[in-house]
Amino acid sequence: MALAPSLGWAPSLHSPESSSYQIQTGSLKHTLLKKRKTLAYRFSVGGRLSTWPAYASGQAILQNQKPCCSPEGRSKKLASLTIAKPRYLEELESYLRKELQSLDLTKENAQELKLQPYREIFEFFIEDFKTYKPLLSAIKNEYEVTLAHLREKIRSLEPLKAMLVCVSDECTRQIVALQEEEKAEITKLKKEKLYLLKLIDKMEEEKGSLQTQMEVLQKDFDDLQKEYDTLLEIHQETVEERDCFYNKLQQVQRSSTPRPDWAKCAEVISGGPVRWSYLEEGKTSDQLVDVLLEEIGTGLLKEKDSFPGLGKGDKVPVYLRYEGQVKNKKLNKKDVVNIVKEIWKEKVSADLQKGKQSSLPEFFLNYLQKRYGDASAFEWAYTIYENIKLYRSNEAMSLFYDILSGKVDEGLYHGQNQLISNLLKELTASDSSNNGTLMTEQFNLALRAACPLKSNDQIQELIDASRYKAQSTEDFIDYRSLFMEDEEGNAEPFIAKIRSQYASEKQEYLRELRNELGHMPEVKVDDLKTAFGAIDPAIDDLTLDAYICLAFQASKEQWDQTGSLPVDTVVERLLAGDTKRIGPLPEEIYTSLSERGEAEAYNYC
Predict the structure, then answer these.
(1) How far apart are CA 76 and CA 84, in angstroms?
(2) Burial of 384: CB neighbours in 10 Å, binned 0-12, 13-18, 19+
(3) pLDDT of residue 34
(4) Residue 200 to residues 192, 193, 210, 215, 273: CA-CA distances in angstroms?
(5) CB of 585 within 8 A of CB of 418?
(6) Dihedral pair phi/psi, residue 308, rounded to 5°
(7) Would the pTM of this model clear 0.70, i.e. be above it?
(8) 529: which of 222, 330, 366, 577 is 20 to 30 A away, CA to CA?
């Protein structure tokens, strides 16, 4: 049987094309027949298979031996080693080796060339073994047809392979090009990313800056709104005040009389014109009326030999709890002032020793009992009480009466004294020569150092009041003489102005507090704390606690039980105490006042 061609299509044996396939392989079959005849002379098979065992010794091609599994098998194999291999097999193996050695396996179709000798050997088997020829031929034919079909497939795929190579090359080129483009694009995107990151950072900074500016603008708006509301309230109050003053002016104009000739009083006042000139100096008509009433009351008081006792009821002050007539000691103003000063001195010393503040009414009675005895204590108490109630123009008596009767808090006395003492210390520290005088500029600086919250107009008022003394001139001020008092306890105009400004500043401070509380009818502890913090941010906790205790008339431990109080009551109690600003004005209030001018602002206060 002939070999299938190495190239070309291999049809099925049962197809019409099988005849052409057999014609094409005729020459090859003729060659194989010649080789077979040549081999037939060299060995004879006889048309039957050899019984020579497959495991016999000798050189076998493609031998696949299995290991012996039993001693009997091994012994049988050893026995067969002496059996000679069939000559026909040896000739076929020799022929196959020679054919394989003669092939050039470096060519592209080396596998096809190598297959040809095996085909020939298989053809010899088919031709020699007639009994198995149909089966072996069918097997070989199927293999050949399959190989031909596969070759045809391969040939048909060759153009596709070439095309795939071209496409692969093109794809590779495109991929490389795309990679290059991607590299460039990636580089560009990286640069753009860095730029965008920087842009984002910048925008974040701008956002933060803008956020801070929205906040600042909102705060400014809130401040302006608050300032507007304050100005609106001030305007409303000013309008009301203006209308009130106008109405009073109209009433005064309708009912006014010529200014009294106060010189006539000199003829009836004890001491004559000289004393009256002293009494009326620097006083208004209203103050002169008080002075005149005091002089009249003094005369009436001296005519009394006794005072009726007020009894021992709980509503009567402890120092006036007496039944029956009480002898009038008939003290003059100087004596009363000296006693009042001595009482203050003893009380301050006693409070320092005890570490707490005692009640002035109880201390007043105890002092008199210790000094004059229990029998005379109420005589002195009634006499002093009637005198200090009468002399309202005297600062020492008037303040002692207000504190003794509970109208004002004792802290007011200590606060004013502390202010005056600090001012004297500051002036003394500025007096390097220690001669009791200071240049006006030095005096000005010392005033500002001792009273940093005062305005320029207030400082100027104090400087003008300091020149009242004859010893003070335009260039030098005798500051020591400003703190002296006469024998009746009357202070110089400088100290009077200090006290007057103290009262005005407290009223303005509490007016701001009331405005901060708004229209609340009642106020609690926390509300008052918040209001003080708003109008006076520099206030310390100790001072704030003292103000709260004064306003609610309760210790700090009792605050939780105080509830709420009317705003008027709170302000009234604070007005009776040593209530003053601790730090400078808040910015919004200061700005509002500055726009109207300091002078106008403080005139309004």
Answers:
(1) 15
(2) buried
(3) 56
(4) 12, 10, 15, 22, 90
(5) no
(6) -75, 135
(7) no
(8) 222
Q: What is the residue whose two structure tokens read 């102005």? A: 497
Name residue 91's amino acid: E
Nearest-angstrom CA–CA distance, 154 and 468:
133
Distance CA 572, CA 584 (A): 23
Q: Are 531 and 484 in contact (CB under 8 A)?
A: no
Closest by alpha carbon to 325, among 383, 405, 401?
A: 383
How many CB atoms sit inside 10 A of residue 84's CB?
A: 10
Q: How far apart are CA 21 and CA 1, in angstroms?
A: 12
DSSP one-letter code for 59: -
Any idea which residue has 């570490």 for tokens? 355
**Maximum Cα–Cα distance across the chain:** 191
| pLDDT less than 50: residues of the chain | 1-29, 40-48, 51, 54-69, 588, 590-605
Token pair 């009468």: residue: 390
Q: String of b and e for 555-590 (b: at least 16 CB within 10 Å)?
A: eeeebeeeeebebeebbebbbbbbbebeeebbeebe
DSSP collapsed to 3 states, 417-467:
HHHHHHHHHHHHHHCCCCCCEEEHHHHHHHHHHHCCCCCHHHHHHHHHHHC
For residue 584, give the nearest of 497, 456, 455 by alpha carbon.
Answer: 455
User: Does an H or E element contain 123, and which?
Assistant: helix 110-128
Collapsed DSSP state (helix, strand, coil) of residue 478:
strand
The tokens for 76 are 């049988």
d(CA 74, CA 88): 26
The rounded distance, in Å, linking the Cα atoms of 118 and 539 is 118
325: which strand partners?
308
SS3 575: helix
User: What type of residue is 332?
Assistant: N
Residues 6+ apart with CB under 8 A from 390: 294, 297, 298, 301
Give per-residue pLDDT as tens, 9-42.
333 333 333 343 343 344 444 555 555 555 544 4
Q: What are phi and psi of 564, to 5 degrees?
A: -125, 155
pLDDT at 61: 43
| Buried b or exposed e, range 142-173, using 16+ CB within 10 angstroms | eebbebbeebeeeeeeeeeeeeeeeeeeeeee
